[in-house]
Amino acid sequence: MAQDNALYAVARIRCHENGLIGRERMARMIAGTAEEAMQVLTGAGYGGAAAGEGTADVEALIAAELARTYALVREVSPEPALTELFLMQADVHNLKALYKLRLLGGGDAGPALMQGGAFDPAALARMVREADYEALPAPLAEALRGLDEAFSHEAADPVRVSAALDGAYFRMGYASKNAFAVAYFKAKADFENALALLRLGAMGASEERLAAALMPAGNIPEKTFLKAASLPADQLGKALEQGPAGEVLRRAVEAAQQSGPQAVERARDNYLIRLAEQGRFDQDTVAPIVGYLLAREQEARCIRLILTAKRNGLPESIITERMRVLYGE
User: Fold this and answer.
1) First-to-last CA distance in the chain?
2) Staple partner for 29: which of 37, 92, 167, 223, CB 3.0–4.6 Å?
3) pLDDT digits (tens, 9 = 90+) for 29-50
């Protein structure tokens, strides 16, 4: 049950922050074998009961730890509407998977669905199957009805499904009355739109295709991305140096010319976790709760990266290069 006392909620989160894996343990995981990395996780109690079972499946540990995180956030949050906004990314993922599956004539997506959202995956599967979206937030329901209408007389396009639902989710973020949430979603949109520009540009996609793929404008107007599509690659970064994340985005886009779009993905994740850190020591707001949620998700990305790289025989230097910064380090 959500709490109405922010001080109590923050105190609970402070206790759980001590259980974050942290840079020291991450360094030990990077330096060891895959088996030793798993031992670091289980020794730290990562994954709770799943760790106690001695599982060798890192995805099971990650899923268990994130499930604990989502349950804690829901239990203590004094502003459930705000924390649900961040948790709802799982629902958006599930709606995209289920709708695309419906287009292909398949059944429910089952194991491919994410836990932790505002809606039970089975309930979402029923909504999509029956085209009954009344229980969903209005922007998501409107996006799905728009897709139903469009695909009733046009060829179904899975890419359009992702753009419509992601766009609706970003608009929900922009409509938040919380300044951090608005800043977070606007910055994230800038990075996502830069990634769309890079990826579609490499494919030689048309301006119309790019316009359809862009998220609703964050701090950088849509016209800036469309204009940048015709620029030489070495001028893209400078063209996108706008808004609070402008300098970070410019450097990331320039780095992407050598290392690929993953440079922008890494910069996005790092920028957003640093943004979340700004409210870490608040005593009477929901900021530390959202920060803890995002910290656990960033931690999961790093753990997955390390174990995947270890099992594929990649050197430590590659892992270190691709690592994200951690909350509070």
Assistant:
1) 31
2) 37
3) 999 999 999 999 999 999 986 6
- Rounded to 5°, angle at Cα 9 from 6 and 10: 85
Quote the CA–CA distance of 42 and 50 in Å, as a whole number. Answer: 9
Contact 74, 3 (CB under 8 A): no
Total-model pTM: 0.93
Which two tokens mark 25?
């343990």
